[in-house]
Amino acid sequence: MHTTETTNNAPRMTRAEKAAVVARFSRYINRGQVKYLRSGHLDVIETERGGVGFRDPASGRRMYDCFSSAGSFNVSRRNPLIMQALEAALDDLDMGTFHFASPAKAALAAKLAALAPGDLDGVLFAAGGGDAVDCALKLARGATGRSEIIATVKAYHGHTGFALSANGKAHYRRFFEPLMPDFSFVPFNDIEAMRARISEKTAAVILEPVQGEAGIFPADAAYLEGLRALCDERGALLIFDEIQTGFGRTGRLFAADHYGVVPDIMTLAKSLGGGLYPIAAVLYRPTPAVTGFLDRHPVFHETHGGGADLGCRVGLRVLEYIEETRLWENAAARGARLKEALETLQHENPRIIRAVRGLGLMVGIEYVHEFVGPMMSDALARHGVFAAYSGNAPQVMRFMVPLTVNAEEIEGIIVAIRLAVRDMKTLLPAALLAARVPGVLRLLNNERVQTAAFGFLRKIEELLPARRKNA
Amino acid sequence: MSASTSPLQASPGLPQGRLERLRALGHDFLEGRREGAYLWDMQGHRYLDAVSGAGTHNLGRRPEAPVAALRNALRDTDQGNFPMVSIEKARLAETLAGFVPGPLECAVFSVMRGEAMDCACKVARGRTGRAELVTVDGGWYGQTGFALTLSERADKTCFGPLIPEVRIVPFDDISAAEQAVTARTAAFILEPLQAENNCRAAMPEYAGAVAQLCRDRGALLVVDETQTNFGRTGHRFAFEALGMSPDILVLGEALGAGVFPIAATLLTQDVNRFLNAHPLIHLSTFGGSDIGCRVALSAVETYARLEPWRNASMVGARLLADLRETAERPGSPIRGVAGAGLLLSLDCGTEEAAAALCRRAADQGLLVLPGAVARHTVVLRPSLLITEDEADAIVTAVRACL
After folding, report:
1. In this complex, which of B62, B115, B158 lies closest to A297 when CB atoms are compared?
2. Rounded Cα–Cα distance for residues B221 and B249 (Å)
3. Are B224 and B290 in the same domain?
């Protein structure tokens, strides 16, 4: 079932073939997206997906997938065991019916409850991350009878109505306001700010134990312990969004396991679907307030695409696989090596890299200047690493490779990053010189200017055949 | 047929309240095998599925081509990285542009209907630079933030203050719409036929007036076809029969034929100018999965090949006539039958009577649900490919319940 891996790096797709796909995508989906991706060398079509990467058919280059669809490919791309489970499930199942109970739903719910931190023993299903967050926030408001939700600055929770309202960066919200009232934001890792904001009107505090899109900021242990105590004191629910951090990503099965802090509600999505089939879940502690609400309003969030039977079978196999292979241990070991190498790189290149942060295989580097993000995406792509800068923090690049990555592959990624940084050094002096002119730095850091400028560079490049050779 | 011994107990994924609801409706069994118009519980009792995942299983359970498409997709692709250009996404979007009438050329993919509606509301605000969303009473659009705010439901107050600047006007009232739609209105949102509200249908005059109002005042017309799309009402899309031309069309999980969760928000090129200017401002990790796009492509090809709206129209008309005849029998508790094609609603008078009908229908081997808005009604939504014999079996089962 696995596509045969070859070392032949010749192009598999002509420029005309790729242009046809891109033209179709531009017309029928989004031409702005194509321009944006092009400017960062991210307009790559993924073929021969498997293991920790895919092949860019236009260049013929094998790419390490260090984006993993924001943490969806923890068990690797096209993991044969997960594919087998889905194939087998296809013999007699389909999505099923949102309303009915089923063996597949019961089995996944039981497994999630067994593996979840502490007494998170109740399970509601959702279709995707945003749906799960909307479900969690509705549950919190419903169970407490309160309306205020406190989220964190630069938080990322999704794009549906409630999730977007809890998104801590104006970029994603500004065109769609007014959103849900009674949502507010406090700085992450700042317990005093939370203490000042939380009250008897607070329904819930929601946060990611490691902020992802914000640029990889792990919570301090004292912060999460403090939040737990504050929530208990004020009768508010504590919600952990583990959509990106769950399923081994941070070196433990769930990020909450690092801290020994059990939230009242936990949202899960992405890697639960094994990179193959959508499935998400909301776990909750069955306290009287929560179960009372659920008993009075059993269908308060009955989502039609959520808890699909096929997705439940996939999710169950994903959890079994992670348990069998103790995948979080590999994430911890490989993550430590990657972080160490990136720290060395930082010390060698203080004018480019400001900081390295991470937990397990959720690792990010922060550049000194925002505009370095797209330039680095470009340089990395040339060396066979697909990585995207963070949505809520373009100066941070995340490296979220599948957790199955082995020692040799991690070294390959490290070499590629080193080469990309070396390339950057030849480009950076000119950019930094320009950045000294007042206003130019701000211009360079503007996303639209970047898209236009780097898009222009791509066009010039493609006119110069000499530069099109494989790096 | 009867699910005599309840095998169900409350469990991590089945809170007591849900279990009680399943019992009250006679649905306290485990969904097992499923094929075509039917599903079986784990004891082997066969039921005709007239729930169809609320309009998800339009082609029946486990339709051959989409199931095969999923198997084939597994041989060489996966979900893909969501921001990327892909052959699958581009091909499905192009195919939809050709399949759906009118100038709805652009697609944003979602994983389920609420998300697709939230996307529609956001794009309407973004494109017009206006905030106000106007909808009609009796609507049911999904569970996510915008969709919930627009919907009419008894438990809405549980969730605190919702999306501001949403106005709900009486359905089918042209003068109320005229007053509500102003230069501040981003969009007018409606379902052509309110599946959860006793299948209340918009009249062509109303639809035409609303569309004209939107044009005059620069508001966008958003049509939610999550329950009516791909032939459910006897038309390919219900808006076609109303002579409307939406600026934004919301498609539900029937797009994935009940095999893969995928939904879509279709936009005109003009509306899509907003997303072209602000790419990646609305994201969905699972929406537009490459595997999902392969399944959906197969589903759309199957819809085009089978034209199930023809069967829905023909068998639906017969079913409607037979059920109306049943309702008019002396002593019948059914007060009326509404709907179009294979989306029909039985008015049972009270919520209790509707639940009782669902329970008795389950004993007769027929699975139906009460309307989510009009809870005194029971909605009939079988596979669009049912035969006349199967339609007769539905009528026989309903008659046996009375």
Report:
1. B158
2. 9
3. yes
